[in-house]
Write a sequence for this structure.
């Protein structure tokens, strides 16, 4: 007699699978795409954390976190491929900072002399500036740390540019900044197209057997590219004029004066409050001034938005995933703000290897949360012409004869 085993219910496994399926990020669509402001808040949190340290290990970890999130969540849009440009720009910043430290000297003294450059004598009115002389290892390392810090700030902003849709970010701007936002969005949209046109025309010259380097080649490529950009600009201006862009509503003079006073007063309050927070003796009045300045500036922007009445079609929603993404950037900034200064700023004089603090590194790793909770980008779809050509090849290879250019069968 054979007794078959009775399967036992596994509610725990089923509930775990249901929870995992619910927590899995959905594929990005028009209705569930992440708010563009969340990406900028996340990037600003990483940039704030990078501004708190000169430790090259922590800065490299911030760059790695930003790069991983960009690689996991960027789309195939033209503006989404700007992260590589910001990486090159960051490397250029480091090289330039080290070059100026070598050529013009550095306020950081040192005892380990790497080499000595010929020193150029300067007049008396340029006291404090030198060209050439001794180059110490401490000065070069300090310049590299400082340049890497600035490069990390640029790379964090580049990550926001690669992840946030500029057109959707424009919809979330206040009405007072709408015209400026449109100018920025147009520039960010047309620049990749200009580069794509330039590369396509260079490739066309190369296929025709012409040179693609030299002054004549550059002039031959630049002229049609600029003509095409001018034509697109004229067409865009006509379309914007037909849709009523630039027309303002009538606002009483008193409202305009109050708007100007609030905006300028708010900006001055933000500047004074920021200085108070950065200065050691102004910590008492820094935060109140900063808060009052932010409130006044927001009031000025709200009143200024009355001059440009507009409606929003299907405004973006700030959902739970947007809160998680922005909170991860804030957590990274808060984690490095609460860390010990000695761990964030490795000593340069005397020269020593930087340490790798554990808790600041864990705080930076919280910035990887968007790679888990943000909606996944939709897979790239081939254009309709390529799909039709692929379908014809498949039909001709499997079910029918291959057709020639005139539509006749190959065997006819």
């Amino acid at each position: 007699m054979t007794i078959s085993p009775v399967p036992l219910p596994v509610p725990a496994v089923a509930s775990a699978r249901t929870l995992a399926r619910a927590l899995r990020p959905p594929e990005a669509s028009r209705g569930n795409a992440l708010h563009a402001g969340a990406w900028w808040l996340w990037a600003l949190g990483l940039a704030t954390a990078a501004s708190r340290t000169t430790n090259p290990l922590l800065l490299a970890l911030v760059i790695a976190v930003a790069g991983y999130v960009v690689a996991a969540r960027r789309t195939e849009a033209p503006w989404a491929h700007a992260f590589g440009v910001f990486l090159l720009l960051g490397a250029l910043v480091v090289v330039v900072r080290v070059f100026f430290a070598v050529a013009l000297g550095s306020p950081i003294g040192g005892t380990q002399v790497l080499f000595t450059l010929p020193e150029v004598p300067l007049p008396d009115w340029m006291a404090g500036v030198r060209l050439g002389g001794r180059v110490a290892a401490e000065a070069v390392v300090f310049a590299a740390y400082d340049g890497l810090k600035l490069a990390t700030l640029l790379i964090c902003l580049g990550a926001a540019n690669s992840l946030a849709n500029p057109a959707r970010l424009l919809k979330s701007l206040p009405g007072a900044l709408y015209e400026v936002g449109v100018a920025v969005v147009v520039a960010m949209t047309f620049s990749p197209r200009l580069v794509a046109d330039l590369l396509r025309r260079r490739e066309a010259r190369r296929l025709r057997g012409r040179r693609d380097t030299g002054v004549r080649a550059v002039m031959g490529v630049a002229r049609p590219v600029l003509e095409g950009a001018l034509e697109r600009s004229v067409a865009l201006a006509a379309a914007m004029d037909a849709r009523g862009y630039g027309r303002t509503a009538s606002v009483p003079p008193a409202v305009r004066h109050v708007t100007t006073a609030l905006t300028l007063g708010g900006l001055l309050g933000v500047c004074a409050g920021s200085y108070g927070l950065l200065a050691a003796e102004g910590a008492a009045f820094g935060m109140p001034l900063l808060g009052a300045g932010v409130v006044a500036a927001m009031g000025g922007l709200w009143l200024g938005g009355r001059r440009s009445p507009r409606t929003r079609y299907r405004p973006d929603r700030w959902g739970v995933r947007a809160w998680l993404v922005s909170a991860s950037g804030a957590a990274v900034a808060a984690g490095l703000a609460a860390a010990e200064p000695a761990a964030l700023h490795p000593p340069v004089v005397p020269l020593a290897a930087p340490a790798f603090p554990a808790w600041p590194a864990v705080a930076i790793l919280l910035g990887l949360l968007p790679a888990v909770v943000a909606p996944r980008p939709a897979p790239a779809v081939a254009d309709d012409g390529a799909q039709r050509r692929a379908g014809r090849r498949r039909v001709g290879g499997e079910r029918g004869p291959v057709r020639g250019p005139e539509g006749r069968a190959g065997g006819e």
Notes: The chain is about 60% helix and 5% strand. The beta strands are 113-120, 131-136. The longest strand covers residues 113-120. Residues 40 and 160 are 5 Å apart (CA to CA).
